[in-house]
């Protein structure tokens, strides 16, 4: 711990809260710039909604949500319309203040008119969401799952999921919401921080019982009841990858602003806490993503009134120690060096005709290491060769990794969803001034001109009007007043507008994909032309 800062560079910085805890120019930081902002309830809902507009079926794991106060009229109108079309629909909604956590300020309502509009709603924006009325119950109790996910790198995208997580239980038997039980938090909200105050909370040393259990213990139970646990895991993996795909475009904008390409800067990784609710039919639903999940492995116990003691919590310990240990193993800079050497040996072996018991290497820095390693490799049998770098590494003797790579492992299945990422790449290209996150009117005009998007039916004057209209609306939502200009979400909206205009009859995701292809084609042609001119 360096409460007053540290002068000498480290290879890994473990920050408590955010990327900006220190000024860092090298190594790796355990937080991404902008992550805390990205996983706030409103920002997450917006990012997922953009993906729902493009791919409604793929993103049906997030409850229908409205952003308050600006979408209050829309919320009222849509609920009325749905009730009119299906009079038997008796929904419940959950109102969650933006930026809140641990169940703070959350309440359930049966009708839009029950929203507490008085006083704080203007000053405290919120998300109102369809309440999942039929969750899966275990021992008659509602529970949610906390899964730990390591975002190891943004570019290229690398995601790992921990094999085990936590299940956090309510402390009152569940009943579907009625006007009478709406306010019973111990029945409806699974937050540990709330339920710990219930007299029914059970601290248990056993991972299979009590109010906090391992997720694997729930899976065992489900499996013994004949549930398709493999399918459940694959749905959870898919939910995690899709959610991160929804977050990456804006994260990349933050990243280039804080760590401009070409300047010395650190790389980042981050452990995220995914809160997931299982429906009765075992469909996983995303509740929220936590940028600073608690890594505590003890809980407080009241010995006598007012006297507390920290006691170990075996369930937390079992899950969380493995997550931290494996995160460090995966980001270990020494491991990267070992891997580089290994790859170097492989590439030398394939390039050079090995007649003698040594390799000729022209990279003087690694020559000694390589020849040494090579001798060992050539001496060893094939099995030992495979093991090289692990048997001798400090990892020997550690348990196998609890963090499993899911991306790029399953990239092929999900890459078609990464359209907004490509829109963000266009946005970043035209941002111009390094360190900014908003596009000025000139940048937007240059984007339209370079991508050859204006023509006789879409003049540069209409381009300016589109820019002003959309930018003004987004800025009036009061998200970020620090900079003026067009934010990424506003640019995405403008891009969707242009795509709809140009490719009229296609579904939205095809319109957007066609426009991205069109823009990328013209920009590549422009780059080539500039390169040729430069050479000339
Ligand atoms: P917080 O950040 O305050 O914990 P969450 O979004 O995690 O807010 O919500 C708190 C709790 O409320 C969740 O743990 C879950 O038990 C319950 N909850 C949240 N959203 C829903 C929903 N759409 N349907 C059913 N229960 C929900």
From TrEMBL:
Keyword set, alphabetical order? ATP-binding, Ligase, Nucleotide-binding
Of the GO CC terms on this record, one is: ciliary basal body
Q: Which Gene3D superfamilies match?
A: ATP-grasp fold, B domain
Check the record and name the InterPro entries matching this protein: TTL/TTLL_fam
Q: Name one Pfam family in it.
A: TTL
- Which molecular function terms from Gene Ontology are attached? ATP binding; tubulin binding; tubulin-glutamic acid ligase activity
Q: Report TM segments.
A: none
What name appears for this protein in its UniProt entry? Tubulin polyglutamylase TTLL11
Its source organism is Eudyptes chrysocome (Western rockhopper penguin)
Print the organism lineage: Eukaryota, Metazoa, Chordata, Craniata, Vertebrata
Gene that produces this protein = TTLL11
């Amino acid at each position: 711990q360096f409460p007053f800062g540290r002068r000498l560079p480290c290879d890994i910085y473990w920050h408590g809260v955010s990327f900006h805890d220190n000024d860092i120019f090298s190594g790796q930081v355990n937080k991404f710039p902008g992550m805390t902002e990205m996983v706030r309830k409103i920002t997450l809902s917006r990012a997922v909604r953009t993906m729902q507009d493009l791919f409604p079926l793929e993103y049906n794991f997030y409850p229908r949500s409205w952003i308050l106060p600006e979408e209050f009229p829309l919320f009222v109108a849509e609920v009325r319309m749905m009730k009119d079309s299906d009079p038997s629909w008796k929904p419940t909604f959950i109102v969650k203040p933006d930026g809140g956590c641990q169940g703070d300020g959350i309440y359930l309502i049966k009708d839009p008119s029950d929203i507490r509009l008085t006083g704080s709603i203007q000053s405290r924006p919120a998300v109102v969401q369809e309440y999942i009325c039929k969750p899966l119950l275990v021992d008659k109790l509602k529970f949610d799952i906390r899964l730990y996910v390591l975002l190891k790198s943004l570019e290229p995208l690398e995601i790992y999921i921990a094999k085990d997580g936590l299940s956090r239980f309510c402390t009152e038997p569940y009943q579907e919401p009625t006007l009478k039980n709406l306010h019973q938090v111990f029945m409806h909200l699974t937050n540990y921080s709330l339920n710990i105050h219930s007299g029914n909370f059970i601290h248990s040393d056993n991972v299979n019982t009590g109010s906090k259990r391992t997720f694997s213990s729930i899976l065992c139970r489900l499996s013994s009841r004949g549930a398709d646990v493999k399918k459940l895991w694959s749905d959870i993996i898919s939910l995690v990858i899709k959610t991160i795909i929804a977050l990456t475009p804006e994260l990349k904008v933050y990243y280039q602003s804080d760590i401009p390409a070409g300047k010395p800067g650190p790389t980042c990784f981050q452990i995220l806490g995914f809160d997931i609710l299982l429906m009765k039919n075992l469909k996983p639903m995303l509740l929220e993503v936590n940028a600073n999940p608690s890594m505590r492995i003890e809980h407080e116990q009241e010995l006598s009134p007012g006297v507390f003691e920290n006691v170990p919590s075996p369930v937390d310990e079992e899950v969380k120690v493995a997550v931290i240990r494996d995160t460090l193993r995966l980001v270990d800079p020494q491991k990267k060096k070992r891997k580089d050497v290994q790859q170097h040996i492989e590439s030398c072996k394939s390039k050079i005709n090995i007649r003698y018991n040594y390799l000729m290497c022209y990279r003087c820095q690694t020559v000694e290491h390589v020849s040494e390693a090579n001798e060992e490799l050539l001496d060893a049998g094939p099995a030992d060769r495979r093991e090289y770098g692990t048997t001798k590494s400090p990892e020997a003797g550690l348990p196998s990794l609890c963090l499993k790579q899911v991306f790029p492992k399953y990239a092929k299945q999900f890459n078609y969803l990464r359209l907004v990422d490509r829109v963000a790449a266009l946005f970043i290209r035209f941002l111009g001034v390094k360190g900014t996150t908003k596009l000025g009117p000139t940048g937007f005009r240059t984007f339209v001109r370079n991508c050859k998007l204006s023509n006789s039916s879409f003049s540069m004057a209409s381009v300016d009007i589109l820019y002003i209209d959309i930018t003004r609306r987004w800025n009036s939502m009061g998200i970020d007043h620090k900079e003026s200009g067009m934010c990424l979400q506003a640019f995405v909206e403008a891009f969707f507008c242009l795509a709809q205009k140009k490719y009229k009859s296609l579904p939205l995701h095809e319109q957007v994909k066609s426009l991205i292809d069109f823009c990328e084609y013209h920009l590549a042609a422009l780059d080539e032309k500039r390169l040729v001119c430069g050479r000339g």
